[in-house]
Design brief:
Blueprint lengths: L2 H18 L3 H21 L4 H21 L21 E8 L5 E2 L2 E11 L2 E12 L9 E10 L12 H6 L6 E4 L2 E6 L3 H17 L1 H12 L8 H9 L3 H4 L3 H14 L5 H19 L3 H18 L6 H15 L7 H15 L1 H11 L8 H21 L2 E3 L2 H28 L2 H30 L5 E3 L5 H15 L11 H16 L2 E7 L2 E8 L2 E6 L4 H13 L8 E6 L2 H8 L5 E4 L11 E4 L2 E5 L6 E6 L2 E6 L16 E3 L2
Parallel strand pairs: 4-6, 12-13, 13-14, 15-19
Antiparallel strand pairs: 1-3, 1-5, 2-3, 3-4, 5-6, 5-7, 8-9, 10-11, 11-12, 15-16, 16-17, 17-18
């Protein structure tokens, strides 16, 4: 590692660290770490005090830039400034432009508006529109007029549940407006959005919803395509989410094919073709963090290659990431950016050494498979701490699933991109004759990939849930993992093993604790009961949203399946499918009758639920040896006399 690369690494650490600081203790820890790194950099490369001071100033400026701008705030003319701190939400007349297509989900559309006027006064900012009883999707570029109450998004009631306020703040939005009617003023020309819609619609109409949406996602990325939930979940559990998200893999397929096809052309033509391929990819996939990183790195690699120089992938990666964060600091908090950067670093740094080690261990008969194994292994090792921190889950068969899917993904991606180009560039009369013939084998190949993913998804322990990790445990886990991904630190592997054991012990102890976790959000409530690694749930509502949030809560705590779930509300047939995926036993209200009658008890090892009074207004919940008595309507603690426990229902 030369001085420039090590300096870029320190700059990246300053930018990423400053963007994550939330408490003074974290800022002090980051400052100490940067000072130690700066001292080591100066000593290793024998820098003068003047050079050391200048670089320290650069680190300080970069850290200040990323730290101050990583959390955007509303400006003076933002619609959120009209919302009073106390008091009712103001009802406003708003005119704005839809920024991105909003498909229909659960009979409603949700779109981000670029606000132009509110009550006739010019305003600049963004607001999220929710249209109830949406009959047709809202399209990008549509200017609309709406009327409704302007409110602030509520923060998450629990770290494991979706935080609407943080999601919107990352998009520069701090207000929401809900309505049941809109008035379309006019539609702007949106050639890029039209091209994306045309590609996605053609694939879905030609290959069906699942296969067509998969092929469209291989071109546009999952952020631009509405994928079926079953498909999205299957790829995530199998460890293949990167195949659906527009990233370096898709650009490498496109750019690599372009380079091979133009290898006999003059240098200027080769560069032009490569740039055209990257512009095409960026335009269709959008300026997401992973896409921008892939395009910048691809452009640098292409220029270095055509210039006859030898590229330094690690240096290119670090400089690319630093430039991205200095230009747009909020990317530092993006999970997609973090995972993309970590996976790329793994491929650049560790894929080669892992391949060498595997070649020494494996018999010659399977040597051709070693490169296919080393790439997903490197990416998994480098993204593992982030997956534990953000999701508390590990795709156990990720390496094997990538090995099995690799022969399918590359030809599918290339074929999908070629057909997308034909859809956009060729006359309709030709495409209507030619493309149905070409898509048939691609459609069958997509079916094989979907079947493979769904098969892996149902393997035992396909997704190992360990519970989300705290930031302090992550800080202990990182130094324990570094010797396993950095060849230069190999001798420290067993010396830092105690840190790994501490992390495992603390995380296991957290899972085995007896806990009551009460969450209230959107008028719904959940009570998660945990005892020695097992869990059960009491929920006040049985709709799809309540089930989805219950699944996030239980899986975030590290529970794949709950012993039982009691829903104090009717559960429809469609919702029962959702609830059955997270619990072995579901007891729900039916025809006005509670899940239990007085004298019965819903019970598993160390966890139980019973009615504490004949009217059913009071519940008695037990976790281990601790008992709480709760009001049924709001799951709040009350004090009542005990009741009998006849008719116990024992669950397996």
């Amino acid at each position: 590692m030369n001085p420039a690369v090590s300096g870029a690494l320190l700059l990246l650490l300053a930018c990423m660290g400053a963007a994550q600081v939330r408490f003074p203790a974290q800022g002090i820890a980051l400052a100490i770490l940067l000072m130690l790194g700066l001292a080591g950099w100066a000593r290793r490369w024998r820098r003068t005090p003047q050079q050391l001071l200048a670089f320290a100033l650069v680190l300080g400026l970069a850290g200040s830039r990323c730290g101050m701008a990583s959390v955007p705030r509303p400006h003076s003319s933002d619609p959120a400034q009209l919302i009073p701190v106390d008091g009712p939400a103001p009802v406003v007349q708003l005119i704005g432009r839809i920024r991105a297509d909003a498909p229909i989900r659960d009979q409603r559309c949700r779109a981000l508006l670029e606000v132009s006027r509110i009550d006739g006064v010019v305003r600049h900012g963004r607001s999220e529109l929710t249209l109830e009883d949406c009959e047709q999707p809202l399209l990008e570029g549509a200017w609309i007029e709406v009327r409704g109450p302007l409110t602030r998004p509520q923060p998450s009631a629990h770290p494991l549940l979706s935080d609407v306020s943080q999601r919107l703040a990352a998009q520069g939005c701090w207000s929401r407006l809900r309505t049941d009617a809109i008035r379309l003023l006019h539609q702007d020309a949106t050639p890029l959005a039209d091209a994306r819609r045309r590609i996605a619609l053609w694939f879905i109409e030609s290959a069906g919803e699942e296969r067509g949406s998969l092929l469209a996602a291989l071109v546009l990325g999952s952020a631009q395509v509405s994928l079926p939930e079953r498909l999205r979940d299957g790829f995530r559990v199998a460890g293949l989410s990167h195949a659906l998200a527009a990233s370096g893999f898709h650009l490498s397929v496109l750019l690599g094919t372009t380079v091979v096809c133009t290898r006999r052309w003059p240098v200027a033509c080769r560069l032009g073709a490569g740039v055209a391929a990257m512009v095409f990819f960026l335009a269709l996939a959008g300026a997401q963090a992973s896409v921008v990183r892939a395009v910048l790195m691809g452009a640098a690699a292409l220029l270095i290659r055509e210039g006859g120089h030898r590229s330094r992938p690690l240096g290119v990666l670090l400089i690319t990431l630093v430039v991205m964060l200095l230009v747009h600091p909020p990317w530092a908090r993006s999970i997609g950016f973090q995972l993309s950067a970590a996976a790329t670093a793994g491929l650049v740094i560790s894929a080669g050494p892992i391949e060498q080690q595997l070649c020494g261990w494996c018999p010659p008969s399977i040597a051709p498979l070693v490169p296919l194994l080393s790439v997903p292994m490197a990416a998994l090792l480098w993204t593992l701490p982030l997956q534990l921190f953000h999701f508390g889950a590990i795709p156990l068969y990720a390496v094997l699933s990538n090995l099995l899917a690799a022969p399918l993904l590359s030809p599918l991606t290339l074929a999908s991109m070629v057909m997308a180009l034909m859809v956009l560039l060729m006359p309709a009369s030709i495409t209507s004759l030619l493309l149905p013939v070409l898509i048939w084998p691609v459609q069958q190949l997509a079916g094989v990939l979907i079947a493979l993913v769904l098969w892996i998804r149902h393997w035992p322990w396909a997704q190992l849930l360990v519970g989300r990790m705290s930031p302090w445990l992550l800080m202990l886990l990182l130094p324990a993992c570094l010797p396993w991904v950095l060849p230069a630190l190999r001798r420290w592997r067993w010396r830092l093993a105690p840190l790994f054991l501490i992390v495992v012990g603390v995380q296991a102890g957290e899972r085995l604790q007896d806990r009551w976790i009460h969450v209230e959000q959107w008028g719904r409530q959940w009570l998660l009961l945990r005892h020695r690694g097992r869990a059960a749930l009491v929920a006040t509502h049985g709709d799809a949203l309540s089930c989805h949030q219950a699944e996030r809560l239980s899986q975030g705590m590290g529970h794949q399946r709950l012993d039982w779930v009691a829903v104090l509300d009717p559960v429809g047939t469609d919702q029962r499918v959702c609830w059955s995926t997270i619990t072995h036993t579901l007891q729900a209200e039916q025809q006005g009758r509670l899940p239990l009658v007085h004298g019965q008890r819903l019970q598993s090892d160390g966890l139980s639920l019973a009615l504490a009074d004949p009217t059913g207004r009071i519940l008695r919940v037990r976790v281990g040896q601790r008992i709480k008595v709760l009001r049924r309507l709001d799951l709040r603690p009350v004090h009542v006399s005990s009741s009998g426990t006849d008719g116990v229902v024992h669950l397996q």
